[in-house]
Amino acid sequence: MKLRGVRHAAVLTPTGVTEEGVVLWDEKGRILQIVPGHPATAAGNADLLDGQGLLLAPGFIDLQLNGGFGHDFTAAPDTIWRVAARLPQYGVTSFLPTIITAPAEVYRQAQATLAAPPAGWRGARPLGLHLEGPFLNPAKKGAHNSDHLRQPDPALVAGWSPETGVRLVTLAPELPGAAAVIQVLTDRGVVVSAGHSLATAAEARVGFAAGVRYGTHLFNAMPPLHQREPGLAGALLADDRPIVGLIPDGVHVHPDLVRLAWRALGGERLNLVTDAMAALGMADGRYQLGDFAVQVAAGVARLPDGTLAGSLLALDTAVRNLMAYTGCSLPEALPSVTSVPARLLGLLPDLGQISPGARADLVLLDADGRVKAAIVAGELLYDGRPDNS
To answer: What is the pTM of this model?
Structure first.
């Protein structure tokens, strides 16, 4: 359903929450204006969605999503569009499909998939790929196939750029050759992340100096904090340069450490991700993650040896968990899935905030952070309001 705007909702703007008003956009899905109050000319218009009692926020951005609804992006990159069509129910209006360590041909297939959207397709917008690998430390490979791991080499990233569909690359900055790859990718506008790593704090800081600007799933696939060697985790918390991803599902990271990360990083550098895999939105059972069969039981995904293998976390649940674990408010939590990831990708203010000229990628939330409607480029793609008014 194509809309012209939303009325009667409180609006989360870059300067705070406004009282009830109207947000209008043009036929191309670009926000025109934010009108406080109840303009008489707009109040009764049929193509304005009623957001009475709800908060209108920027659409959510997930920077790490491996699949969902039975589909794994690494095993079958062409399923990206099927998953994207169903993500708005979680408030996700854009995302980075994540391809874990795989042969180079899989990366090329994923790039080709993003370059050719199906005719008439509607859903959350893929912003490019997150390639999690293949330059990872074998000792912290997690659920990645070690047969496909490679030493960093600029020749292996020759076709990687935002223009060819690659937005974010996770690597271990301590590996030989990593600095050269970081330089090449950052020069092209690719965001480089540190993760699946044994880096010391000093090695991590060398990576930051070379251009690393993100940390992949803080505390996971990296050494724990130590009082004399803070490692990658400590460096990510202490250095002001990187934005830091975190999986707040209550399984990957203890709530106390989520609270610690919130206090260290706050609303400026903390980015919530799901790391969700094929079992997102599905029942317990056996699912695929790259080359591996994963058993999902009681909402937790593991390899046969017990290694965690992605999550079943939805991004709206991640926001609610952050609120529960830290006591922060909904407006305080929302930048972690809106403006912070948009800023990391260099897409703010086009994405991640509600302001004139920005894309009308929006979500309506109740006071508990539950998604009641999601809008992509001005089009209503999910409506969970009780009366669908």
So the answer is: 0.97
